[in-house]
Amino acid sequence: MNAFMTFVFTIFTLVCVVFGAPVSPRDVFVPPLMSPAAGAVWKVGKTYEITWDTSKAPGQITNPVGRLILAHNSRLMNLEHPLAQGFSILAGKLNVTIPKNTAPGNKYQLVLMGDSGNYGATFSIVA
Ligand SMILES: *[C@@H]1O[C@H](CO)[C@@H](O)[C@H](O)[C@H]1NC(C)=O
Fold first, then answer.
1. Distance in Å, CA 120 to ligand 1 centroid
2. Residue 47: which of 113, 94, 92, 88 has the closest Cα?
3. I need a labelling partner for 9 at 20 to 30 A (CA). Which of 48, 59, 107, 110 fits?
């Protein structure tokens, strides 16, 4: 960033702070996942209810359509086939089925994507 941009951004940030607006020019909403809880053990082929906290949702959301992706060892898996997609990021809950072809293991996480991606707690998948 050059000095002028830094200056502009600083002014913008100050204006936002003074007027109580979010610092970001867009309302980026990244709701935290509440379930699965850390250490949960889920079975392949079973359906589970995922929940996330929508209580801090801003009035305007840049992208209100969510996608839920499985991650293993922090790596997003099967991006082209999300566990779920096209749901409202404001729904706060969703039922998903762990695909039958998922390899059992630890260090699985769900990633809720809307404006941005948000990793949930680490859980295990068993056969
Ligand atoms: C998920 O499934 C359970 C059991 O069928 C049901 O009680 C619950 O309402 C469902 N939740 C959602 C978000 O569809």
1. 20
2. 94
3. 59
Give distance in angstroms: CA of 48 to centre of ligand 1: 8
User: How far does the centroid of ligand 1 lie from the alpha carbon of residue 94, in Å?
Assistant: 8
Nearest to 114 by CA among 90, 80, 97: 90
pLDDT block averages, 10 residues each, the chain of length 127? 73 60 61 94 97 88 90 92 94 95 96 89 97
Find the CATH number of the domain harbouring 105: 2.60.40.10
Domain membership flag for residue 90:
yes
- Is residue 71 in some structural domain? yes
Please give the backbone phi and psi of residue 115, each rounded to the nearest 5 degrees, phi first.
-65, -30
pTM listed for this prediction? 0.76
Residue nearest atom 2 of ligand 1, based on CA coordinates = 95
Residue range(s) defining the domain that contains residue 61: 33-126
User: Residues with Cβ within 6 A of ligand 1?
Assistant: 49, 93-95
Q: Whose CA is nearest to atom 10 of ligand 1?
A: 95
